[in-house]
Design brief:
Structural class: alpha+beta
Distance between the termini: 51 Å
Oligomer: single chain
CATH class of the largest domain: Mainly Alpha
Number of strands: 8
Strand content: 5-15%
Largest sheet: 8 strands, mixed
Number of helices: 23
Shape: globular
CATH topology of the largest domain: Serine Threonine Protein Phosphatase 5, Tetratricopeptide repeat
Helix content: 55-70%
Length: 489
């Protein structure tokens, strides 16, 4: 069976639902998806299929596929997709399937490039206004592949094919890092600087002019600055690096945390040791302990000895712990966890009912979700803290995957990174649930982590995650230990 790119389908569906005349119908559909009975969901499935008999355009097919997938009727969704591809062979759905099945599964870069040219010929970009990002994903993928192979010229060629400025940094920065590793600092610097300028443009737009694309691009501003500044620091251009950082902190103060590491490095390079120490202390207080040795070196430079350093470190950790406790207080909840029985990577069913009496940590994730992946080292360290505790169980629930062979991709990813995780698959076919478990947990975005107490009640619902290992460890420990205890009345 073939799957449809969720991002694309959602964009089309949202465009349809944005029309005022259809708002009420969309709300009714969502209510059935979230809380409807099996009979209501089956009735809606038949209504959607019946409606397609008079459909004259591709749009109703896209909407139906999206809704059928959310309802859990994957076979029906795949059947509708096949019909749409046959009826609209040069339409967006046929193109998306071809891209997923041929382009992204190509075994070599040469083969992928040949398929890309076929796609441009059959489905030209100009025929799909508003869908340029689909082509940018492919151009960015080709650019990265060529960069990995050392073909910088081809990599740059495909970067220049990118249409969407808001997304350009997502192609430029990964390629820039590969080019930098190959020793081409000048080319890498130019790519990083372009990404920086793009992100800065969006970060400094007036708030009333920022759409979702602008906000997405703005989030990459600190990373783009850091990538370029790291080159400047490596070249000893500390003053120029500092100018870029301070400009960024002034233009986008809400993103200041992302500038801290580059800021510290630039200040230290200019021998502004007290300021560098203060910035490094802020980094440490956020749970990033990898710079403790550098913090100690600066402390000794400022004080002449290391006397008192351990006390200072302890105070920073205590302040961090206080911040974490305040944070998790705000994500406390009290609702029964949905029961589930999901299959793991070995094909064995695991149920929540069998885990009653344990504190269960549930982490919803996907292989394409970078914030999920960035949190995994911290989650691995957290699980290892409780490796010998029989009263605590970690479950990593893979959800919202976009390709049919996701189970193989998940298994390969887990094996490659040596993660000792109990991974369960959240889909209607294996879960026997309708809708998926992520829907039942009211997940709106991933990563999403839930702490379930011994009685099966959700104590904490955490959306998003830090990437700092020590922060995650401390956060998880606070929530797990609180969930061991009876709820305060």
């Amino acid at each position: 069976m073939r799957s449809v790119t969720v991002f694309f389908i959602l964009l089309m569906t949202l465009g349809v639902m944005a029309q005022p005349a259809k708002n009420e119908k969309a709300e009714a559909y969502n209510k059935i998806i979230q809380t409807g009975t099996a009979t209501e969901k089956t009735a809606l499935m038949h209504e959607l299929l019946q409606g397609l008999k008079t459909a004259k355009t591709e749009e109703p097919y896209s909407t139906a596929i999206n809704l059928l997938q959310r309802l859990g009727f994957k076979n029906q969704a795949d059947s509708v997709l096949k019909k749409a591809e046959k009826r609209f062979p040069k339409g967006a759905l046929a193109r998306t399937s071809f891209v997923n099945e041929r382009f992204y599964k190509a075994e070599t870069t040469v083969a992928k490039e040949k398929i890309y040219r076929q796609i441009l010929q059959k489905w030209p970009v100009k025929n799909f206004p508003g869908s340029e990002i689909t082509y940018d994903y492919m151009s960015g993928s080709l650019a990265t592949d060529f960069a990995k192979e050392g073909n910088t010229e081809k990599a740059i060629y495909y970067l220049h094919n990118l249409n969407e400025r808001f997304w350009r940094g997502n192609g430029y920065i990964p390629v820039g890092k590969l080019v930098l590793e190959a020793g081409d600092t000048a080319t890498a610097a130019a790519l990083f600087k372009t990404a920086l300028e793009d992100a800065q443009y969006y970060a400094t737009l007036p708030e009333d002019q920022k759409d979702n694309k602008a906000r997405f691009a703005a989030m990459g501003y600190p990373g783009a600055v850091s990538a370029y500044v790291d080159i400047l620091v490596g070249q000893g251009n500390y003053k120029e690096a500092l100018d870029y950082i301070e400009q960024g902190m002034k233009l986008a103060p809400e993103l200041n945390d992302g500038f801290l590491v580059s800021y510290y490095k630039s200040l230290a390079g200019l021998q502004r040791n007290l300021e560098a120490y203060n910035e490094l202390s802020k980094i440490y207080k956020k749970g990033n302990f990898e710079y403790e040795a550098s913090l100690k070196d600066l402390y000794v430079k400022l004080n002449g000895s290391e006397t008192g350093f351990d006390r200072h470190i302890a105070s920073l950790k205590q302040a961090l712990l206080g911040d974490i406790r305040t944070h998790i207080k705000g994500i406390e909840t009290d609702r029964a966890a949905p029961g589930f029985k999901l299959v793991n990577m070995e094909g064995v069913a695991v149920s929540l009912a069998d885990l009653k009496g344990k504190v269960v940590v549930v982490d919803f994730w996907a292989t394409w979700c970078q914030p999920c992946i960035r949190s995994f080292p911290g989650m691995k360290a957290s699980q290892e803290m409780y490796a010998h505790d029989k009263d605590v169980q970690f479950l990593f629930i893979d959800t919202w995957e976009k390709v049919d062979d996701y189970k193989e991709k998940v298994a390969a990813f887990i094996k490659k990174n040596n993660y000792p995780f109990e991974v369960l698959f959240d889909d209607a076919a294996t879960a026997g649930t309708n809708p998926t478990l992520a829907d039942q947990f009211l997940v709106k975005g991933i990563p999403a982590k839930f702490i379930i107490d011994k009685e099966g009640s959700i104590r904490y619902a955490l959306m998003g995650s830090s990437s700092n290992v020590e922060y995650i460890k401390m956060e998880m420990k606070e929530m797990i230990e609180a969930a061991r205890l009876p709820r305060k009345k």
